[in-house]
Structure formats: C-alpha cells, structure tokens
Design brief:
15 helices, elongated, BirA Bifunctional Protein, domain 2, binds adenosine monophosphate, eight-stranded mixed sheet, alpha+beta, five-stranded mixed sheet
Amino acid sequence: MDKITAVKGMEDIFYPDIRVWHYIENMIREQMRIFGYTEIRTPILEKTELFVRGVGNTTDIVKKEMYTFNDKGERSMTMRPEGTAGVVRSVVEHNMTGAGAPFLKFYYFGQMYRYERPQKGRLRQFNQFGVECFGTDSPYVDAEVIQILYLLLKKLGLSDLDVKLNSIGCPECRPIFREKAIAYLSARKESLCAECRERLEINPLRVYDCKVPSCAAAVSGAPFMVDNLCSGCADHFGKVVAALGDVGIPYTLTKTLVRGLDYYTRTAFEVTSKHLGAQDALGGGGRYDNLVDELGGPKTSAVGFAMGIERIIIAIKSQNIKLELEKPPDVYIIPLSAGEFDYSFKLLWDLRLEGIGAQMAVAEKKAGSHFKDADKLGARFAVVIGSDEVTSENLTVKDLTAHSQEKISSGNIVSYLKSKAAGSN
Ligand code: AMP
C-alpha cells in the first residue's frame, strides 16, 4: 500500500526537536506571567467574513492565501491565517472591553494556515506566539509589546536582531498622505512591478515594502508616511521612540515598513534576524486602534504582535545556540530475565510515584544489549535486577556516566537515586 504523507508545507514535530518547542513555550509562559498577560485559546476555524473584514480584502492573505471551504451547512469557513482577528472576535463577543480592568492583555500560541509557496521558513501550517493588549492608546504599551518581542528573542540567545520601527499614521493623516504617494508613484508607474501597479490605487503603502529592485528604487525618493504624520500620530510616535530609548531597546527607523495586514494604525514594527535566509522576519506587529469597532465592538485601542516559532527555531539552530532542554528519564530498570519482570514493574511504579523519571526493559535480551538501549534512551542509571537481587533485596545500580556500580538496598533506592540525580545538576 502507498504511504500517506503529510500535506505539503505542513510539518510533524516530535522528539528530539519537540524539546526546543517546550523550552520556548515554557520560557514564554513564564515571561507572560511577569508581564501580566493571560492566555487565550480561540478556534482554528472561523467564519470567513472575520478575516475578510478583519485582515482586509486587499491583502495577499485574504486575496490568495486562505484555506477557505464550505462546511456541510454551506457556510464559508476559513482556517485562521493569523491570530489577531480571532482574539478580537472573542473580545467583542464576550464584551470583554467593558470588564472593568484598566486594560486587557492576552497571549496565544497556535497553528496558522496560509496557502503560500513553501520554502525554508515559509510553511502552509506554521506556529505563532502572539500578544494583544486592548483598552489603551498609551505609547508605553506600544513600547511594552516591542520590549516583549525583543526580550523573548534575546532570552533565546538570538543575536544580530534588527528591530525595524515605523509609524503608518491613522485615518486622519493616512488618506492625505495616500494621495501624495499615489501622485508620486503614478509618475513612476513604468518602473513598478505588475503587482505594484495594481496595488497603486488600492493600497499604495504596500508598494513601499515591495522587494522588487525597480520598485525599491522608485520608492527611494518618495514621500514617507512617517514624515507626514498628523500631530497626534507624530506625538505618539515620538513617545514610543523615547520609551524604547529609556529601556535601551535598539531600533532602526524603517520608513518603508508597512506590514502586510490592513488593520494597523500608527506604530508598525518587525524584528528580523541576519541568521535567516530570504524569510528573515521573526515577528512583527503594531497598533490597530480601529479593528475592534470594525468587528462590531466599541471603539477600543489595541496593539500586539505575532512571532513565528519555526523561524525562531531555524535561527536558534543556525546560531548553534545550546538551550537547557528537558532531560530523558534518569533510570532504566533492567530485569535480567522474565522471572524479574513483576518485581521490576513494581519498582518502576515506586520510582515514578516518587517523581523519579524511569523506564523499564520489557523484552528479554542479553545484558550488553540492555545497556546499549539504556544509552540510546539517555538514562543516567541502570538498575539491574537478577534473581539474586530479588532474593537479597539488594539492587545493582550502575552509573552510566561515571561507569561505576554500587549495591543499594531496595529500601534506600529512592533516596539514593534522588540524591545522585540532585548531585548531578
Ligand atoms: P505576520 O502574521 O505575517 O505578521 O507574521 C508574523 C510572523 O509569523 C512572521 O514574522 C514569521 O515569523 C511568521 N510567519 C508568517 N508567515 C509564515 C509562514 N508562511 N511560515 C512560517 N512562518 C510564518
């Protein structure tokens, strides 16, 4: 029979790599507690309309990349391409904005789905971690979410990071700038790529971050949004920049940064790594002060970001960073023959109840072969149980790293193993 393979652009994650995922997730959860964010879990499947309205129907995501299908009731459903729209839907649906707290701070982990051309660092199912903060337009909160993204990447040991920062204005100043940009770029339409020519009237800001060299050249002398902000946006941006400076977060003002989602207002940012190939963005986000009301809620300011876990792991590997990963069980119990299985199984239970990580050989093999298995499993100790050990209740404990061995009475085995394991840390 033919093997069934995973869907193109979708990956299985398992041991030993899964340990890196656990490390990242545990570290992030701890930081989220410190920063005062709580977890939110929303469904993978949402009504298509949420993303059409929330992400924006001029974006590449909505136009080309969504996994959309009709369910059995002929309702159009979409596998979420990003996390923010679902979180906002939930906040609105559960009336959370009026809940009395000064602001709402959520974080999430989850799979996202985009029908993109797979390549290194670009998948069709990928995992994001993100934060969303609702209920305040304070520039300190913009600075806080940038600080979180930067800190998490630093805590993973990543270096050569570039925090790119820009402001893309608001509904007051952006339409005025839009006309200026269209006028400037229309005069250079011939140099723009086919896609940008199309974008020009619909979403001219997107032309600014096009990677095609002739587009980049056309944009280089263009007016920039950040130089054309209204006084409210300019004041806000100045405060974000000052707050980042106060806490020592380095950033690069990147006037061409616009981000691929329609909902952003004011602050936009992205963190890139020099250790990635073409897909060099580890994470990005920005402020979105109009999305909550566009999705049916009360006018509520918000800011957030998302980062891609797969890309972070690629960067960790290419920088050869050694993380302290979870260890395999310490103990491998080896019954020398089937006659010792029952005794061994009981000992296995006792050790596990005491919190000692243990596994047991369940096949009859030569002792040498058992020791090889113990090595493969990464155990530190082998407890060897033959008929003599069962009768005398004196067990043979081999320290597989120190290559030494001792006889330990069954009554002392737990405390012995615990003290040894503690000593090894
Ligand atoms: P975005 O939601 O497009 O702003 O993406 C935020 C982060 O998610 C990016 O910086 C990447 O790290 C990650 N990401 C986005 N798209 C993909 C993808 N197709 N495959 C892997 N990671 C992705």
